[in-house]
Amino acid sequence: MEGTSGESETQRKKELTVNVPVPEEKPFTLWPGKYHSPVTAALWHASSSFAQRARNVSMDSPAQITLQSKTPEENRTSVVYKFSSDTSLREEYRNPWNLFRIGKLLEDLDALAGTIAVKHCSDSDHTTRPLLLVTASVDKISTKKRLRVDVDLELAGSVTWVGRSSMEIRMEVIQPVRELREKDDVALIANFTFVARDWRTQKAAPVNHLVPQTEEEKQLFAMGAARDAHRKKLRMGNQLSSTSPFAKEYNDRLTQILREGRVLCEMPALGDRNSILMRDTRLENAIICQPQQRNIHGRIFGGFLMRRAFEIAFSTAYVFGGIRPLFLEVDHVDFRRPVCSISTKFSFLSALAF
Fold it and tell me: How many of the other CB atoms lie within 10 Å of CB of 171?
């Protein structure tokens, strides 16, 4: 929705809050989100006009050429979970231990980040073909406190950094424990990186500029630029330098681990009885991607893949430790290539690494 020029700032911010049901009159093909959580469906409903535009615009239409300058506040979006009053919603996000299902939260975070990316990249011109936006990576996802499934929760995010064809979206999970919001109400923070592709050529496409307004926004922009530079170094294959002060310690530890593993493989009776081979902690799961798991672009929903990966990782830790593990953080998530076909076979492999 777009407000008129006479609306107050408070009214405009309220319109950015997504908390709407999925209308039944929409065509089936526009609502893949109906098979996910109600929150995901609501977010994709907010992006439905862009999805409809992608279906109606010919691939021969001109690409978006004129780039706009937008502020982080313009694309800031939030969604509210009414757990305290909606028992059905609460049941969808409750795990067997009556705690929050983190996997479903990752799924919703990706859906919200995608909605924000679409908002930022839109040129509001129905004669040009829209961009194809895909999740490229997710930086460290860390929890600051345990999430409760009986207290209302809010997801909020905005674009904090923009490059030529990529953007970083900072996502926050907020669960107030008092009437007044404070900084410690933020329970989880994650940074999603999206890249833009041209629908027809599948090549990188430029995105709208970002103009930070406040000091905090400028700091987040600088941090995003630093993370992007770090990712580029990693892609170039930069490894630990032999002159690094940590190189010797790293190599010594690696040699020790390999020596212990070799003994367990070749002469198990002489191995440390308190040790286990990494391969013995491995779990595997295979699925065929279904039409219900696609996103508004008709491709496999990245949030779905993150949820399945998290759940098998959780199971691996559970089987190894024999007790319920507590989630602390996800170090990094990389999407190395897109999944185009809904009939693709996926194998999820998980093993303890540390």
Answer: 22
For 171, phi and psi rounded to 5 degrees?
-110, 140
Instruction: Pick the closest to residue 306 from 16, 22, 34, 40 (CA basis).
Output: 40
CA dist., res. 290 & res. 208, Å (int): 33
Other C-beta atoms lying within 10 Å of the C-beta of residue 187: 21
What is the distance between the alpha carbons of residues 121 and 195, in angstroms, rounded to a whole number? 11
Instruction: Round to whole Å and give the CA distance between 115 and 303.
Output: 13
Closest CA to 154 of 80, 76, 77: 80
Q: What are the tokens at 64?
A: 């978006």
Write out the two tokens for 223: 């941090």
Q: Is 176 exposed, middle or buried (0-12, 13-18, 19+ CB in 10 A)?
A: middle
Q: How far apart are CA 139 and CA 145, in angstroms?
A: 18
Yes or no: say if 168 and 88 are a contact pair by the CB < 8 Å rule. no
Report the distance separating Cα 172 and Cα 245, nearest Å: 36
- Mode of pairing for the β-strands spanning 77-81 and 17-18: parallel
Q: Which of 192, 264, 268 is nearest to 224 (CA)?
A: 192
In the chain, the N- to C-terminal Cα span, in Å, equals 48
Q: Is the pTM of this model over 0.90?
A: no
Question: Mean pLDDT of successive 10-residue segments in the chain (354 residues)?
Answer: 44 43 42 54 58 58 80 90 89 90 91 89 76 87 88 93 94 78 78 89 89 94 91 67 63 79 76 79 86 68 87 93 90 79 82 85
C-beta of residue 157 within 8 angstroms of C-beta of residue 169: yes
**H helices within the chain, ranges in order?**
9-15, 38-46, 48-56, 72-75, 87-92, 102-121, 215-235, 247-266, 302-321
Contact 47, 115 (CB under 8 A): yes
Q: What is the predicted pLDDT for the residue at 340?
A: 64
